[in-house]
Amino acid sequence: MALSAITMGWAVSAVLNDDRVHAYLALALTAVLGIAMVNQTAFYFADIGLPIDASEAATLLFVIVGSHLVMVAVGVVWLGLLLLRALGGQDTSRHRDLVSAAALYWYAVVAVYSVIWIGIYIAK
Fold this sequence. Notes:
Blueprint: H1 2-16, H2 20-48, H3 56-87, H4 97-122
């Protein structure tokens, strides 16, 4: 997820500089990294084999990580829409507000993942 924050910054910089090719690449790469994070989490849940109703801690784990997965999914859909807008030529340096808002949202998603990663996956 940290790498996706860098690629999102690249996308914002590309839009500010009217560099459409790099904007396409950065937005697509950020979305791919978000999808990879969802895939990694799905693998983790399949690997641990913990049923959701095993205990209160298991339920809490699924709720916290599931809520974050919803945040990531919303971000990936938003990035897909931004990519379509960029392909249509609507995101330029004069109309950069949606890309900046998506970047702020994506940075929040990355920050939440950092807290979850340290609090759940590392500290347990």
